[in-house]
Amino acid sequence: AYKSVKGESLMSQTILVAPGKNALANAVHLAADNESSTLILIDGANYEVKNTIAISGALKVVSSSWMAGQRMHPALMNEYERFNMPNILPASNFQGDALFSVAGMSDVEFSGVSMRGSHIDARQSVRYGFITDADNSFGDYRFSLNGIVAREFTQSNGAFFKGLAQSFARTGKVNHSLFDNVTGAFVFDEETDDEGRYNIEELHISNSRFQNSSGALVHLYRGGMDESTFGPFLFIDNSEFINNSATGAQEVLNLTGVQVVRIRNSHFQNNGNYIKLMNLKGAKKSISQSTVDKQDRITTENNAVIRGLTINNRKNNQTRRTGVVGFAM
After folding, report:
1. Which residues contact 250 (CB under 8 A, 6 or more apart)?
2. pLDDT tens string for the chain (329 positions)?
3. Gap between the Cα atoms of 287 and 299, Å rounded
4. Which terminal CB of the chain, N or C, has fewer other CB atoms within 10 Å?
5. What Å distances lie between residue 14 and 9, 29, 64, 65, 70, CA to CA?
6. Per-residue b/e over 181-213, b at no fewer than 16 CB within 10 Å?
7. How far apart are CA 10 and CA 4, in angstroms?
């Protein structure tokens, strides 16, 4: 199901992964013996997962076209082009809450792949795409998602990426990606004892689109005070939030105790029944050079900044592009 194509050193290895049930799990297990590994997935192939795959250490999972430099933003692809990406999905008899769990001290990168939360023969979707390991407390981790498609993660109270209590992401980077029909995208809200702890230091989202989804698409929580910690920080640039809807009294961006927020060059359109887009509190929070619908609400407190905001009155035109957002790779 897999073979080494480069890097015979035990320190680093590149593995070409043939399609098939559990082939990806086997390759990840093999990669765990190396300090760092790259798994290349074949374009157009399906990689079914039977159980949650545990990731530890430094691991890259990339498509063969991405490795060859043939890259297009998923939001600009047609359905056939998206279908031709390597597709990671649960088997019909999948067991577990998530496709992947991420251990402490991991450095995880996925590029140019599609991830689905459901199998056509399964009764419901997987709850999470990624979840942190339950025993993640002994080291922080990092993740990077580039040019991916994530869709059909629709379980109630689920998310595409979920950080559990006691886990800590040093950085999360999301670039050139598409999130379609997910319930919650990036949720780091578990440290609710209000002692100043939180689950992620920096979350960077750029050149990405969130569409046809529900719930709080970014949910960051920090409660209480701890002067030895400085985050969380949220940076969103050149991204779109289109045709999403709330599943309760929610905000598109639910930000509690976030220390710095910088949103720029982004576009919010047709985001149904949320109580508001976001609340920005404090002088280090801002949204600038962005567009929103006429009925959208952004509330501010304590000198938060709104600058260069354009009101889009054509809320029913789902294909309208403002020119603010571009998806060049």
Report:
1. 215, 216, 274, 275
2. 333 344 334 457 899 999 999 999 999 999 988 889 999 999 999 999 999 999 999 999 999 999 999 999 999 999 999 999 999 999 999 999 999 999 999 999 999 999 999 988 877 789 999 999 877 556 899 999 999 999 999 998 899 999 998 899 999 999 999 999 999 999 999 888 888 889 999 999 999 999 999 999 999 999 877 655 688 999 999 999 999 999 888 999 999 999 999 999 999 999 989 999 999 999 999 999 999 998 889 999 999 999 999 998 654 444 344 445 777 67
3. 11
4. C
5. 10, 13, 12, 15, 19
6. bbbbbbbbbbbeeeeebbbbbbbbbbbbbbbeb
7. 11
Strand, helix or coil for residue 87: strand
The CA distances from residue 283 to 67, 111, 136, 203, 287, in Å, are 42, 35, 33, 19, 11
